[in-house]
Amino acid sequence: MSHKCGAVAILLGLSITAALYGQKKADFSRFVVAGDSLSAGYQNSQLIESGQVHGYANVIATQAGVSLKLPILQGAYPQISIIQGHAVVTGLTPYPRVNTQQTLDVAVPGFVVGALVGFHPPCTLDLTNPIAVMAAEILNPKCTTDPGPTELAEAALLQPTTAILWIGSNDALFSILFGGPPTPLEDSATTPGFRTLYRAAASTMASNSGHLVVANIPDVTLTAYLTSVPKLAAILKLDPSTVEFVFHLGADDMVTPYAFVAIQAMGANLTALPESDPVSQVPVVIRAARLAEIRAAVIAYNSAIAAEAADNGATLVDIYSLINDLAANGVVVGGQKLTTDFMGGLFSLDGVHPTNTGYAIIANEFIKTMNRSLRAAIPPVSIEQVSKTDPLIFPANDHGKHTGHVDVGMADGLRRLGRR
Question: Which of 193, 219, 232, 313 has the largest CB neighbor count within 10 A?
């Protein structure tokens, strides 16, 4: 190398180093989190203290030595009871919050990106609208105005030094829970699409935050809520080809927990599974074409999220790749392999929200990215220590703890929260 080239290389290295270390270190003194159930610490189809404190957002705050002033709930939303060994949704009774301070975790379970931007919780609670109950509890506990502020407005008004925005999973997931297509990416003549709504959320948060961290959306078809044809065959102790023929399923179709109710009702007279329950219209079979549509929507959403992160100077956390890797390979924790299968140790009983250990893994992905991009210097949480007290991790040889699929009561809990 010539002296001239060497000098250029040194100067280039010095300029890169100066740019990296000249960047202001992230300030977590006012750490705010906005999003949906994943950011609220939802677990087992409920929002309750045991899940809230183990949620990824609270794990990050704890590791950073700050408080999110969680809106700790004395009772669960919704209430789920175990009756004759089955989970049953038994109500949506409001409980007073333990902590009435202004929470810094303003995430509301059940929110799509449009709700984060535009839903105003009313002061007068309508117990037939679970979303309104949850939003009022979390966003506007004193209810000094009617209607209360949107989640986006509340998060922006808090003027965070560092903020996390993780929203959009329900825009894809609700296609599985309720049927129909995912939220359109682009605007229609009358309704804004995902791209427009997310742009409003990201730009508002970025302009009101010292640092903004956003996360992309996992492939919701990889959740344990759905059962593939091979897994269905294993549960029923039948050959996969027999299951495909008898129930009129394609090899790449998947079924929801309600398929098992339908199969049980058939008794010995097995026949084609209905696409949906004839009374409730709850999806029973999710066809391969719809699954492909959902996956494509997630990829499109994530492209829009990445673009907004770049435009707003936000740090992007790649949860999509993390979940893909966990679904493909699992993870060994404390000598035991954990998987994304039902009761595999990473998803809770509802098959959609993480266990304590799953949330800790997600927290570490955020921490790793923020340490690299924002010089946050947050120590990662010990996944092994979390797993030791995780009530949803069972010994690998324990085959009597579960049925192999999400209980219908847990599925009812998810659908009740998402119903508006």
Answer: 232
Write the CB contacts of 104 (distance below 8 Å, at least 6 apart in sequence). Answer: 30, 31, 32, 33, 67, 68, 69, 158, 160
In a domain, 282, yes or no: no
- Closest listed residue to residue 407, CA positions, set 363, 342, 358, 331: 342
- The CA distance from 340 to 329, in Å, is 9
Angle formed by the axes of helices 408-418 and 169-178, to 10°?
Answer: 120
The answer, as to whether pTM is greater than 0.85, is yes
Beta-carbon contacts of 327 under 8 Å, excluding residues fewer than 6 positions away, are 219, 222, 340
pLDDT tens digits, 135-157: 888 887 777 777 888 999 999 99
Q: How many CA atoms lie within 13 A of 372 on its CB side?
A: 9
Instruction: Give residue-wise pLDDT tens across range 91-129.
Output: 667 666 677 789 999 999 999 999 999 999 888 777 777
Beta bridge partners, 163, equal 32, 212
* Token pair 């079924």: residue: 255
Calculated CA dihedral for residues 124, 126, 129, 131, nearest 10 degrees: 30
Residue 166: helix, strand or coil by DSSP? strand
How far is CA 77 from its chain centroid? 16
Dig out the tokens for 269 from the structure: 């007279």
Q: Domain count for the chain, please give it.
A: 1
CA atoms within 13 A of residue 138's CA, in its CB half-sphere: 35
Beta strands in 294-415 (DSSP E): 315-317, 331-333, 336-338
Q: Which CATH number do you get for residue 175?
A: 3.40.50.1110
What DSSP element (H or E) covers 293? helix 288-311
Q: Which domain holds residue 90?
A: 26-220+288-418
